[in-house]
Write a structure and sequence with these properties.
This protein is an alpha+beta fold. It has eight helices and ten strands. It is 44% helix and 16% strand.
C-alpha cells in the first residue's frame, strides 16, 4: 500500500490483514520502489499523488523491473490521469473516496486474473494473435505489451467475434464484479487497447457496448 495519508494507509492495511493478506504500507515514491524491489509483492495499491516520485513514475519503475499487478488510487476524477495510469501498467483504479470493502473486492479480482493461467488454444482474428498460455499478443506479427486486465479484456470478445458485449457484462465477466465500478472502467481500458493495437480493434456499438468483428 503506497499512500502518503497515514489514516487511509492504516485503515486499508488493517482491512487487508483482517481479510488474510500480508499487507504493509509505505508513504512515498522512492521507498515504494525500494520496497517492491526487496519484497516482490503479489500486488501494489498505489496512490497517484505521492512525495518524491508520483504514482505514475513509481508504476513505470516497478513494472520495468518486474511485472506486478497494480491498483491505482486517485483523488482526481481526471480521465487523462486514469488513461496514463493504465498505459504505464496499472490493472485497475479506484477513485477517492472509496470504501475498504470495495478496494478489497478490486484487489481480489485483479489477483484472480493474475493467477488464472490457462492452456487454451491460440486465438486469432483479423491480424490479431493472442496466446493465453504465454499471455502474449501480436498485431500483424509484431508483439504488443498489454497489462493483465487489457489482455483479459481483449481475450473475452476474441473468443466470440461478432458478439456485442454490454459494459455491465464486461465488468462482471472480465473484472469479476458487477457493482462498485462504473462504465468508465471499461471505457478507459478500451481506449488503452486502441492506442496499442489500433482504433479498429475493439469497436463501439453505440448505445450497446463493445465487440470485435462488428460493424
Amino acid at each position: 500500500m503506497v499512500e502518503d495519508e497515514p489514516a487511509i494507509a492504516d485503515a486499508v492495511v488493517r482491512r487487508l490483514r483482517s481479510e488474510g493478506f500480508d499487507a504493509r504500507a509505505v508513504g512515498d515514491g522512492p521507498r515504494a520502489v525500494e520496497l517492491c524491489r526487496d519484497t516482490k509483492p503479489d500486488l501494489v495499491v498505489l496512490d497517484l499523488m505521492l512525495p518524491g516520485l508520483d504514482g505514475l513514475e513509481v508504476c513505470r519503475r516497478i513494472q520495468a523491473e518486474r511485472r506486478v499487478p497494480v491498483v491505482m488510487l486517485t483523488a482526481r476524477d481526471d480521465e487523462t490521469d486514469l488513461v496514463i495510469g493504465l498505459s504505464v501498467g496499472a490493472d485497475d483504479y479506484v477513485t477517492k473516496p472509496f470504501s475498504p470493502r470495495e478496494l478489497v473486492a478490486r484487489i481480489r479480482a485483479v489477483l484472480r486474473r493474475a493467477d488464472d493461467a490457462t492452456e487454451a488454444a491460440v486465438l486469432r482474428h483479423e491480424g490479431l494473435e493472442l496466446d493465453p498460455a504465454t499471455r502474449q499478443v501480436r498485431r500483424d506479427g509484431t508483439r504488443v505489451h498489454l497489462t493483465p486486465i487489457e489482455f483479459d479484456l481483449l481475450a473475452h470478445p476474441l473468443t466470440r467475434p461478432g458478439v456485442v458485449f454490454r459494459r455491465e457484462q464486461l465488468l462482471a465477466d472480465v473484472w469479476g464484479y458487477a457493482v462498485g465500478a462504473g462504465p468508465r472502467t471499461v471505457d478507459s481500458h478500451v481506449r488503452a487497447l486502441r492506442r496499442k493495437l489500433g482504433e479498429d480493434v475493439v469497436r463501439t456499438v453505440h448505445g450497446v457496448g463493445y465487440g470485435l468483428g462488428v460493424p
